[in-house]
Amino acid sequence: MSNNKIWFITGAGRGLGVELTKAALAAGHSVVATGRNSAKVAAAVGDHPNLLCLKLDVTRIDEAQSAVNAAVARFGGIDVLVNNAGNFYAGFFEELSPEEVRSQLETLLFGPMNVTRAVLPTMRSQRTGLLLNISSTAGIAGGMYCSAYAAAKFGLEGWTESLAVEIAPFGIRTMLVEPGFFRTELLTPDSTTFAQPSIQDYADRSKATSDAWSGMSGTQGGDPAKLARAIVHLAGLEVPPTRFAGGSDAVGVFKAKAQALLAEADAFRELSTSLAHDE
Ligand SMILES: NC(=O)c1ccc[n+]([C@@H]2O[C@H](COP(=O)([O-])OP(=O)(O)OC[C@H]3O[C@@H](n4cnc5c(N)ncnc54)[C@H](OP(=O)(O)O)[C@@H]3O)[C@@H](O)[C@H]2O)c1
User: Fold this and answer.
1) Which pLDDT score, from 0 to 100, does residue 91 have?
2) Count of domains in the chain?
3) Is 149 one of the catalytic residues?
4) Residue 278 CA, ligand 1 centroid: distance in Å
5) What are 51-55's contacts with CB under 8 Å, separation 24+?
6) Percentage, residues of the chain above pLDDT 90
7) Whose CA is closest to atom 22 on ligand 1?
8) Residue with CA nearest ligand 1 atom 25
9) Mutation pick for ligand 1 pocket among 82, 184, 216, 244 (CB with most ligand atoms within 8 Å)
């Protein structure tokens, strides 16, 4: 991908979205930076002649279409869509309400689908584009207290991997980014909702785990500005990776998962491969 591309970024008012916007502008690209509050986005990313700030709540299909229309009207197309907006519903599955689980999927899975649905006709007509979805190591490996978040991120991974094959003939590529722990606002009360403790059997672990997650906020090892620059670099490659492990912790998760899958394929190989009809 050559320089001076048009980027469209969701959730650009805080965290990684702000850094992505700054990194893409610094690399010479034009950026449509979007968020639920466009004034907040503008204040966070600052002024730039190649920048357009727009209102977009990713759970709103109508807002996705309006923002895409405005982006195309201003810049003539969209080359890179970054589905970045996110939040975290933390808690044991039994203590998360059905509404909380649905809300998690609305933001992390249906949100990217809404925005992508609005962008793809433009990318198809251009016969080029990059769909860049910010997943998580929780999209590779599940873990305690993350069932809703991991369900959404695993969904994002499966959807992206499938969509990739459907849109490749139109010159549109996909790239998933799986960050480990980065120092953004994700673990602050503005982005994290803890399930209300309601089941005595979980009480001890619930308190310890919510304290641990809250305590991590502001101390995560990953630098989101560095991650943003890495993403902008990778998006500019002729063949961007289909997955990128963000951080050394993420590399560890990738390797452990790959090894676990290989071991599981081997553990019952004879039984697994004995299941065809006899004829
Ligand atoms: N930080 C990490 O360690 C980490 C690790 C793995 C994956 N990730 C992923 O990285 C992405 C960015 O998160 P972050 O770490 O930068 O978190 P963050 O600092 O909390 O920022 C989240 C951003 O998403 C926006 N957002 C939330 N719901 C939205 C909606 N319905 N429509 C539009 N925007 C919405 C927020 O906007 P408001 O200001 O309006 O709330 C905010 O700008 C997320 O997809 C997250 O899952 C982060």
Assistant:
1) 98
2) 1
3) yes
4) 52
5) 51/21, 51/25, 53/12
6) 99
7) 86
8) 11
9) 184
152-174, pLDDT tens digit by residue?
A: 999 999 999 999 999 999 999 99
Structural domain harbouring 184: 6-272
Residue 233 lies in a domain: yes
- Helix/strand/coil for 99: helix
Whether residue 278 lies inside any domain: the answer is no
Instruction: Output Rg (C-alpha) for the chain, integer angstroms.
Output: 20
Residue 182 in any domain: the answer is yes
Long-range contacts of 31-34 (CB under 8 A, 24+ apart): 31/6, 31/7, 32/6, 32/7, 32/8, 32/67, 32/70, 32/71, 32/74, 32/75, 32/78, 33/9, 34/8, 34/9, 34/10, 34/67
Structure token pair of residue 273? 């491969």
Q: Given pLDDT bands bounded at 50, 70 and 90, which one contains residue 176? A: very high
> How far apart are the C-alpha atoms of 109 and 100, rounded to whole Å?
14
Write the DSSP symbol of residue 181: -
Comparing CA positions, the residue from 213, 191, 158, 184 lying closest to residue 88 is 191
User: Is the separation of the CB atoms in 176 and 165 below 8 Å?
Assistant: no
**Residue 263 forms part of a structural domain:** yes
* pLDDT reported for residue 2: 47
CA angle 213, 215, 220 (to 5 degrees): 80
Which CATH number covers residue 192?
A: 3.40.50.720
Residue 54, strand partner residues: 34
279 C-alpha to center of ligand 1: Å? 53
Q: Separation of 120 CA from ligand 1 center, angstroms?
A: 22
Asked whether residue 3 carries a pLDDT value surpassing 90, the answer given is no
- For the stretch 200-251, pLDDT in tens is 999 999 999 999 999 999 999 999 999 999 999 999 999 999 999 999 999 9
- For residues 112 and 158, the answer to whether their CB atoms sit within 8 Å is no
